[in-house]
Each structure stands twice: as C-alpha cells, then as structure tokens.
Amino acid sequence: MAIDVVGITQRHTYGTWRHQRGWKPLHIVDAEGCTFTDASGKRYLDFSSQLMCSTLGHKNKAVVEAICQQARTLAYVGPQFATTARAELSQLLLEVLPKGLTKFFFTTSGTEANEAAFRMARLVTGKHKIISRYTSYHGSTAGSIAATGDLRRWPVEPTGKMDGVIFAPDCDCVRCPLGRQYPGCNVACADYIEYMISHEANVAAIVIEPIVGTNGVLIPPDEYLPRLFEIARRHGVLVIADEVMTGWGRTGAWFALDHWGLAPDILTTAKGITGAAVPLGLTATSQAIADYFEDHYFPLGHTYEAHPITLGPAVAAIRELRDRKLVERARALGETLGAKLRDVAQRHRSVGDVRGRGLFWAVDLMRDRATKEPFNVPADKLDRKPMVIDRVSADLMQRGVFMMGWISHLIVAPPLIVGEAEIDQAVAALDEALKIADAC
Hints:
The structure is a single chain. Helix content is 36%, strand content 18%. By secondary structure, it is α/β, with parallel strands linked by helices. Helix 7 packs parallel to helix 8, helix 11 (326-345) runs parallel beside helix 14 (420-438) and helix 13 (388-398) crosses helix 14.
C-alpha cells in the first residue's frame, strides 16, 4: 500500500532550522557512492556530503558489513561493560587523533560531545566561563546552543542561554571584525581573546572550530591558532577543538589541527567518524584530564554511550580512510577542486571569495566585492526574507547537483571518494547557477 511520504513527513514531523510553513522535503529513496536518488528516479551529485558528514560516500561496503556483523554479534550491551568494538576503536583513535589525546567518551552526536566537553572543562579547572566565537556552531542542546555564536542561538534565548558563555571576535580575514584588513595584522583577534581572559577571569576553556564549518569555511592565518594555544596555556585555560565537521580527512589531514601540529586538551568530533552511516560522537581528552577523574566522580553517561553498533562501523570507517589513503587523496584533489572553483569565480561578479582546504571549500557570494557586502545577512533567514543563496542552490538541484547554501555562501564538500569527472560536473553546474546571483 502506497503512502504519501512527503505529505506525512511535512504534516507530522519537524523540518530542522526553518519555518515549517512551505516546507516540502524531497523524497529520497536511494544513495550510493557520490549520488542520491529521488522517488522519480532523478539522481543528484552529492557535493556537500549531505551535512558534510558522508565522508566515504553512500553505501560504503565495509561500513555496511560492519553494521551487519556487529548486529549479528552483539547488537547492544550497556556502557558499563567492555566490548571488542570499544577496544578496537580506542586503539585506532590513539593512532589517528592528535597526539596526547588518550581517553574517550562516546556520544551519539557532536552536540552531545560538546556538552560533555564543557562539563569536563568546568569540573577539571574549577572555573565556569567558556569563551566561544560569534561565527560558530557547536550544537543544539542547552550548553552547545549557548556556545553557538550564529543565528541558531538567537530564537531560543533566554532559555537557550547558558550562564557563563561569552563570545570573542572571529578570525575572519575576509570581513575582519576588528577592521584590520591589511598585511601585518598580527592576528589581533587572538590577542583580544587574551584581553577577555584577563578581564573576565574564571575562564575554564576556549571552544573553537579550527576551520569554521557551516558559517563559511574560514581558514585562519598560520599564526592564529599557535598564538591562541599559547595564550590559553599561559593563562591555564583549556582548549576545546570542535572537529565535528573538519575531522576525518575533510581538510586533507586527519584533523584540521594537524595542519598546525597542535593538540587540544579536549577534541570533539562526529559526522565522518562512521561516514554518517550510524550516529556516533566522540569527546577525546588529554591524559591530564583523564587523571583528574581517577579520584573525582565522572558525572556523565547515557544509555547509548559506547553502543556497539555505533563503534563497530567506526572501526571500519577509519580503516577505509587509512587503507584507501583517502586523507591524502582529499589533500591532492583539494588542489584540483580549488583551482577549478577559482577559475569559475573569475567569470562571475557575484563571487567575492573562494577559500578552503582539502575537500572543504566555500564560495562566498557578495553584492559588492569592494565593500564585501553579502547578498543576505543572518537576520534575513529568521525574518523569512528572500535569500539569493537559496535560488542558486535550487538551480543547482535542478541541474542535478546538491550543494548546501548558508546565508550568502555555498559549501563545497564532496565525499572523499569523489572523482575528477564528478568534480567537473559539479563545477560546470555551479558555473551556470551563479548567473542567477550575477543578475541580482
């Protein structure tokens, strides 16, 4: 018996981060490799890896088999027990995570991983305040949304505002929040965080996306993160690296911090850890933090912590990344993709900036290149104003390419298995779709 899939979904389930009126989700029936297919049989090239999470593409055979094998062997046991999957994944994490991260707490999302990180930081330091940045996203639950700087926090305040989170200027060299857009800036945005620490006091941790994700793939200058880490260490402030989106080869390194050779006190991640085949998040801590909880109560836990069916596929996903050298492949292909995107940008007055690393890029649309004025601002999305980026994304979908748009930029983040022919297909579609923005 056929059912009205779209109608039932629309009427009885919530569409995330949007006004519900007018939502008509596309019915997807299959996905494989770098494509997904709708109910009419039309195929789309997945050039944002869904929510920047389907790192291995869709239906990776090794991960699918790991899910089945784990379900047949041990579908569930409580987190108070040891399992083979838990031990195998822990061993692999010690090999691929930034050195010094030695103990792990498993969650079912990046949101929960950040919640755990904030609680740990406060307990270990005995301090309360968390410094985040305005252009950031860290999750949707009480603590993680409070630490989110972007528009998704605004509608839930004050109930979504957790006492003790303060926001710092962004490291945005396209639109510098401090107005220092010239050579020799010397990352004043990092120095300002030191000013905040000194004048706020009681700061437990700084939480950062090393490369900002949804909010624009912002690449910091080489000196920014080392300077930020040095400031934090000198003041006894922990560094929490949110690598939910940038981990697992996305930027051409296992983790974005690897580009700078840095290791945080706490690292959070999710998404690509299983190639998004099952929901798994991770909070990884230094040995110093682990040692604190040897004789202090660890007040964290949930029913699905270290769930075997989430851990077994993660083992398979990490082995796929390693054995197929997909991290190295992302780094090499990223140079090809970046060059093609910059070439397209030269033909379109609406493209103000192209930036990225590995297979993680942003195409930043601007109404005025000279002033760097975007077509839309965050408040426009909440106010339901027409968004130029939505028109461009819709045109791309008509051309069979899914490329996520956010406020005034496109996020270009294909699966790490993407081929050069698929890159050419997506870039050609983008070349045509950008004519819409050029005319605005």
